[in-house]
Specification:
globular, Aldehyde Dehydrogenase, Chain A, domain 2, six-stranded mixed β-sheet, seven-stranded mixed β-sheet, alpha/beta, binds nicotinamide-adenine-dinucleotide
């Protein structure tokens, strides 16, 4: 289409259009206008991509390379990504409105780190041997599992894609990536850079299109796919799990969240408010790990609310391409309608909005909600916007009970200066990631994932190796 950038699928080492010529538009949420025409994949395109990945797996060099050779190529891909940092950051910012200060200064470094970390982790991994049976040599091998379908969301497009691609590739698999339809651009460009950096054709393929009824559904149903790694909504996870049952394919899921930040009166309150505000409002709250409920010990509740409202009002809304912008627009018209609908409903259900609210365009200003009844939708459902509810509590037990009163279990934050309490509460929170007096800090060796409706399995370090390989036991008679 005239005046628009063109984004193709990436299949067998080449950027290509859809077999039937179909396309869709990527809308820049800043100006609410289309900026790119994107290939819209059908089952034919998915078939081509899976066939390329299968052929690269069964006949190509990638699974047969030494770990050192694979590792060197993945480091070269990371170099290429960092050499194109400005270009790559802008693609994600245009697609989904994440401020450039975050896409450029945070996501590129983290995406390169994903590639480098798994390149090294795979190289250093060891297999086990079991010396206990005289006359036999018994040992394990971790072999590449096959063709991986990676289905990723739009909230950190490049970071999420590399978090899946990097371990899948490092352990010798081939991949078909289906990025979110709202944020397709950086995935195709990453695949192009990867092949230029030495990744053999067919090892990383990208197919675009919607999930339900589109390329996503076709990919996860495809019987040429051996395992599925997915990040997105819990409901989508349920649909993908049903598809994966056909042919008993393994799944690894990172799903939704409704994290709680628990602030005790003994905490360093300035720090607690600052970190809890970041956990609630960063990326306009479009973070699975967001602390979207703040529970505050009653004696300091009003003070914390006041400081939080101040913080919320200080955050700078604006054009996400401006490096000073802290809060960009929400990612799409549908998502903006969902978040603003939540705000309207919260008021109808008796809650009070102290700061923020819906703005011109697709912006929602950081919003602090108080007095929401415990059963209000704003307290129970994942909003995925810059909206935080604040609730007073009287005892530690009550704080833990309320924090855990959700089917999700992805993240929780505890703010206290008492060591024993920190450990005690961290031990009782039903969440895969608990931060004490901090947020967001990660070590890629540690397991990442969620309890309950927040996911299945863990990724990170050896956990990713377990998922992306088939361990095999070999027993040899040596008499
Ligand atoms: P989504 O589930 O709508 O879509 C995610 C991806 O799945 C997209 O690529 C989409 O096209 C695809 N998809 C949708 N339906 C499908 C189907 N039936 N079959 C195959 N593919 C399908 O999620 P989203 O709106 O893109 O992302 C936001 C959600 O992701 C939030 O719930 C958030 O909490 C979650 N998330 C979780 C984590 C985590 O690590 N736990 C990280 C980021 C985002």
């Amino acid at each position: 289409m005239k005046g628009l950038e063109s984004i193709g699928h990436f299949i067998d080492g080449k950027t290509v259009g859809s077999a039937d010529g179909a396309s869709m538009l990527s809308v820049d949420p800043t100006g609410r206008t289309a900026w790119a025409e994107v290939a819209r994949g059908s089952t034919t395109d998915v078939d081509r991509a899976v066939a390329a990945a299968r052929s690269a797996f069964t006949e190509g060099p990638w699974p047969r390379m030494t770990q050192d050779e694979r590792s060197a190529i993945l480091h070269d891909v990371a170099d290429a990504l960092q050499d194109h940092a400005d270009e790559m950051a802008l693609l994600d910012t245009r697609d989904m409105g994440r401020p450039i200060a975050l896409t450029r200064d945070n996501d590129i470094a983290r995406s390169a780190a994903n590639l480098r970390f798994f390149a090294d982790d795979a190289r250093l991994a060891v297999d086990t041997s079991f010396p206990g049976r005289p006359g036999h040599h018994i040992y394990t091998r971790h072999e590449p599992a096959g063709v991986v379908a990676a289905v990723s969301p739009w909230n950190f497009p490049l970071m999420q894609a590399t978090w899946k691609i990097a371990p899948a590739l490092a352990y010798g698999n081939t991949v078909v990536l289906k990025p979110a339809e709202q944020s397709p651009a950086s995935a195709t460009r990453l695949a192009e850079l990867a092949v230029q950096a030495g990744l053999p054709p067919g090892v990383l393929n990208v197919v675009h299109g919607p999930g339900p009824g589109g390329a996503g559904e076709a990919l996860v149903a495809h019987q040429g796919v051996d395992l599925i790694t997915f990040t997105g909504e819990t409901r989508t996870g349920e649909a993908i799990m049903r598809a994966a049952a056909q042919g008993v394919r393994a799944v690894s899921f990172e799903l939704g969240g409704k994290g709680a930040s628990v602030i005790f009166a003994d905490a360093n309150l300035d720090k607690a408010v600052s970190v809890a505000a970041d956990a609630a409002f960063s990326n306009a709250g479009q973070i699975c790990l967001a602390g979207s409920r703040i529970l505050v010990e009653r004696s300091v509740h009003d003070r914390v609310v006041e400081a939080l409202v101040d913080k919320a009002r200080q955050l700078r809304l604006g054009d996400p391409r401006d490096p000073r912008t802290q809060v960009g627009p929400l990612s799409s018209a549908e998502h903006h309608a969902k978040v603003s609908g939540h705000l309207r409903r919260a008021t109808e259900e008796g809650a009070v909005l102290l700061a923020g609210g819906d703005q011109e365009g697709w912006w929602v200003a950081p919003t602090v909600v108080v007095d929401a009844p415990a059963d209000a939708a704003v307290c129970r459902e994942e909003i995925f916007g810059p909206v935080v509810t604040v609730h007073p509590f009287d005892t530690e037990q009550e704080a833990v009970r309320v924090a855990n009163a959700t089917p999700y279990g992805l993240s929780a934050m505890v703010f206290t200066s008492r060591l024993a309490r920190a450990h005690r509460v961290a031990g009782q929170l039903r969440a895969g990631n608990v931060w004490v007096n901090c947020f967001w800090v990660r070590d890629l060796r540690s397991p990442f994932g969620g309890f309950g409706h927040s996911g299945i399995g863990r990724e990170g370090g050896g956990h990713s190796r377990e998922f992306f390989t088939e361990p095999k036991t070999v027993v040899m008679d040596v008499t």
